[in-house]
Write a structure and sequence with these properties.
By secondary structure, this protein is an alpha/beta fold. The protein is built from 12 helices and 17 strands. The protein has helices at 21-38, 45-52, 56-68, 134-151, 189-192, 212-221, 285-288, 290-297, 305-311, 317-340, 351-369, 388-403; strands at residues 72-74, 89-91, 96-104, 107-114, 119-126, 158-166, 169-170, 176-179, 184-187, 207-211, 222-224, 227-228, 234-239, 243-249, 252-254, 344-349, 379-382.
């Protein structure tokens, strides 16, 4: 292990003259925390001072506060060469936790993650939730959250909050406007999702709501809370019964004016195509969503993507269905590349096992439809398996802690 001396540079707006003392301290805490969390290796106080432009003594004082507050942790000092030994700093383990929750048409899930990115507890329960009653489903989610928190008792100290992933449109107040595949309309989950009561005197953990694809994409953009993964610029598409998508640029989801961007599943493939759950016709989801896929392949709706891969190994309806889905997906993604100039496409959910079978048609459509194709090397890669929206939801909560740590320190 090494202690890096090249902490990445972050904006130091904290140095702006005229900022009040309290907010100056808050901003400096935020800068120090973000530098320590973003570093790919454990980082020293000296490296944070160099990366932030703050003095060594200021950084030491702020780091002490973050150590006391359970946001940072010290590893054993490293003695290398002459001079004082460097004490490596890392995100704290087993202190502040974030809870990811998800309602998908085919399962309910909960995953508790700490500031180091470690999963403390998780549970995913298969379910059939198409055209479901939101009150009943949200009560089940609340029970699941309670189970996860109780089963992990002693492995964390503070619950920073929870985020619920849903496959549909969510407004800035956390209202689920529409989820075609759950059949929900204008639902306010936070009113229904009561997390277990905290000790007397503490405020209950806040429950936020986000779009499933946005949160799943966040799990691909971050290796751990506050730590970017790869280039951080890609388009993520996931498929279950529905098909969702999100554009991530420099690690940040690009959600559009109202937070509703990326609905690639409801972009047009064929105006004369089959009717869609959204009320339109010929949407990508009707070619590449799970039910559409399996029906066209002549398989039962309980068949898995792996069953489809096996069936498509020989000529017949399953291979035709995969080819049709690959062409539809390639057409939609060519539009995405033409609109966004993105060269990294990440395919998640049921597309992961199907990617080798889909790839020939996908690449053919991209090379014939993308204007810049001769000069653009578009990568198509499989996403993370294992319900990434649950991880992303927890990371979204913890990302807010990293960005504004002062709220979580003693005496805040
Ligand atoms: Zn549609």
């Amino acid at each position: 292990m090494t202690v890096t001396d090249d902490a990445q540079s972050v904006p130091t707006g904290s140095l702006t003259p005229g900022v009040g003392q309290a907010s100056l301290r808050d901003q400096n805490l935020s800068v120090v925390t973000m530098l320590a969390y973003a570093a790919p290796e454990p980082v020293s106080r000296a490296a944070i001072a160099a990366g932030s432009g703050l003095t060594r003594s200021t950084v030491s004082r702020l780091v002490d506060e973050l150590l006391a507050g359970g946001l940072l942790e010290e590893l054993a000092p490293l003695i290398a060469g002459r001079g004082r030994p460097a004490t490596p700093l890392v995100p704290a383990r087993g202190t502040i936790a974030g809870l990811g929750l998800e309602v998908s048409p085919s399962y309910l899930g909960a995953r508790l993650v700490d500031l180091s990115g470690a999963v403390l507890a998780e549970r995913v329960v298969p379910a059939h939730l198409e055209a479901s009653d939101p009150d009943i489903v949200l009560d089940r989610v609340a029970d699941l959250a309670g189970e996860i928190l109780a089963s992990s008792d002693g492995r964390w100290t503070v619950l920073a909050g929870a985020r619920l992933a849903v496959p549909g449109l969510v407004d800035s107040d956390g209202r689920v406007l529409r989820t075609p595949n759950l059949g929900w309309r204008e639902v306010m989950p936070a009113e229904r999702l009561q997390l277990p009561a905290p000790p007397a005197g503490e405020a209950p953990a806040a429950v936020g709501v986000g779009n499933e694809a946005d949160l799943a994409a966040l799990a691909h953009a971050l290796e751990a809370p506050g730590r970017p993964a790869g280039s951080g610029t890609f388009f993520y598409v996931s498929a279950d019964i529905g098909v969702g998508g999100t554009s991530i640029v420099d690690g940040v989801p690009v959600r559009g004016r109202h937070g509703w961007a990326g609905e690639v599943g409801h972009t047009l493939v064929d105006p004369a195509g089959p009717p869609c759950t959204c009320g339109a016709a010929g949407c990508l989801e009707q070619y590449a969503g799970r039910d559409a896929f399996l029906s066209a392949a002549g398989l039962g709706l309980d068949a898995t993507a792996e069953d489809l891969v096996t069936a498509a190994a020989v000529p017949g309806p399953a291979r035709d269905a995969v080819d049709r889905a690959g062409r539809a997906l390639g057409t939609a993604l060519a539009n995405v590349v033409n609109l966004l100039d993105v060269d990294d496409l990440v395919l998640g959910g049921q597309f992961i096992p199907l990617l080798p079978a889909l790839r020939p048609a996908l690449e053919e459509e991209l090379s014939s439809r993308v204007l810049a194709a001769p000069w653009l090397d578009v990568t198509i890669r499989p996403g993370l398996s294992g319900e990434p929206a649950l991880t992303g939801a927890a990371l979204a909560v913890l990302g807010e802690v990293v960005a504004a740590p002062s709220r979580w320190l003693p005496g805040a």
